[in-house]
Write a structure and sequence with these properties.
The structure is a single chain. With 170 residues, the protein is mainly α. Helix content is 76%, strand content 0%. Helix 2 packs across helix 4 and helix 4 packs across helix 6. The longest helix has 31 residues.
Length: 170
């Protein structure tokens, strides 16, 4: 019951009418994973996102540190899911036989820990940006939708640039 309330509260804040169904699913799953991990790691009522008003997660974040942790966790989870999904999809479109696809999927699963670790390390670039943004726009109340959209646009842009930089280094 508690997790249904938590997920229902978070789900109400997520709008994914635009974009691909795959990306929308990855966003929802990454948010659910982030909230679940945060609640599990911070089971003390003082740190719960859902302590007083389950419908108002934003006011329960409380500090820039919690927001940074949630931001990094979300971007790590989303990046992990995104990379795995599109690598498997690309492999399926270029590998012609089922046995080779199975071998590729198995090897990708074996590399999942490295992919997850890389996604988490790459998401470090979000911490200082998230802290500054939170202190400027969200410390005392829910920021306007425009500011949230700008935060996400810049955040995803930072991640995209980090991957481009890494690709250039290869």
């Amino acid at each position: 019951m508690y997790w249904n309330t938590c997920w229902g509260s978070a789900k109400g804040l997520i709008t994914t009418e635009n974009g691909s169904l795959e990306s929308n699913k990855m966003v929802r799953d990454a948010i659910l994973q982030t909230i679940t991990a945060y609640e599990r790691n911070n089971h003390d009522d003082q740190l719960s996102l859902f302590r007083e008003q389950p419908s108002n997660i934003w006011s329960n974040i409380g500090s820039g540190a919690a927001f940074c942790e949630l931001t990094r966790s979300f971007f790590a989870s989303f990046t992990d899911r995104y990379l795995k999904y599109y690598l498997e999809r690309e492999a399926a479109s270029t590998i012609n036989d089922y046995r080779s696809i199975e071998v590729f999927s198995k090897k990708l699963s074996e590399q999942a820990e490295a992919i997850s670790h890389h996604a988490f390390e790459t998401s470090k670039i979000m911490q200082s940006f998230a802290a500054g943004w939170f202190n400027n726009y969200a410390k005392n109340n829910i920021p306007p939708t425009k500011e949230i959209v700008d935060f996400l646009r810049v955040s995803f842009g930072k991640m995209r640039e980090e991957f481009r930089r890494e690709a250039d280094e290869l």
